[in-house]
UniProtKB/TrEMBL annotation:
Entry GO MF terms: hydrolase activity
Name under which the protein is recorded: Alpha/beta fold hydrolase
UniProtKB keywords: Hydrolase
InterPro entries: AB_hydrolase_fold, PHA/PHB_synthase, PHB_depo_C
UniProt superkingdom: Bacteria
Domain PHB de-polymerase C-terminal: 184-371
Keyword Hydrolase: yes
Organism: Bosea minatitlanensis
Amino acid sequence: MTARKTTAAAASPGASRPAELSLPWFWPVDAALRLTQRNLDFLSQAAKITRPPPPGWATPNTVRLDLPTMFLREFGTAAAGRVPVLIDAPYAGHSATIADYGKGQSLVETMLANGIPHVLVTDWKTAEQEMRYFSIDTYLAELNAAIDDLGGVVHLVGLCQGGWLSAMLASRFPRKVRSLVLAGAPIDTDAGDGPIKQMAHDMPLKSYRDMVRLGRGLMPGRFMLAGWKNMHPAEHYVEKYVRLYQNLADRNYLDRTEAFAAWYENPLNLPGVYYLQAIEQIFKENRFAKGEFVGLGRRLALKDVTCPLYLLAGAEDDITTSEQVFAAEGLVGTPRKRIEKALVPGGHIGLFMGRKTLSETWPGIVRWIAAQDGAAP
């Protein structure tokens, strides 16, 4: 396949946002336990608003692969003797550009600047009608195909929901993952006592199924966006406009606001089968952590993950609590001496695009990744 060059202009740097602005894709409404057909019809209509242009990529890249589920984006160039780094971005209702958000707020930029010559990102596509039956197996299979195209071995970096998919890949094909970084990744969804865990068990599965039915087999991004906003109505319908009015003369503030809106106001649709499977089997039943999830024909066990492992969590992250991330240490087969952990200040999306974490924590993670190039699989 011929690579297509993209030269999207760098997005304006965005300010760090509170964790609640990145609530996960499986909490689509405020009154979750009182969903009705009327509620869903209202959300569908209310969310049909004018949106800003979609976000761009901050760093020039090429599309190495165009697969049904994703564009595999390539940054930098391959180097002899170096294993490529594949960032598995969240497939959670928002664009994968969170991994390359803007100058000074880009994980891709941080990796390239700290000695990783070849970085790739899974740019997951919004689901169209023909994708409604795609399952977790579909995404595992195409992630595996991307790794094969890169030579069959990668350093895998899983962000948020991309973390459990990456851990599944490392469990199913352990020799293909030289090292694994899990950042804000919910591996044991029963761990800790965060609000997301409680909501996962409280909201009936029928409510999720009703939304997918209304989306004709998809979980529409517009439903999720309206629901996220309704969970914090004062922030989205009052306070942000007050701040905007107060900063009309601040061009830098306006640029940051526009950049964030481009990312936040352009949600992705998700395949209904994938979405409901993740809700029921990962977040309600916690099958992966229990060794009961079946992926690509085999029961997956975290103990089959034996590569060097780095776990990164946010101290104020109420989307993926640190307990859900760090629980992986006791579930994987990697020896304890080959596991590194870091708990950093801040919330969820700050783990991937916060200036402080990118400048102070990720350079050390990048050096750790590079040191694993010669490690035996």
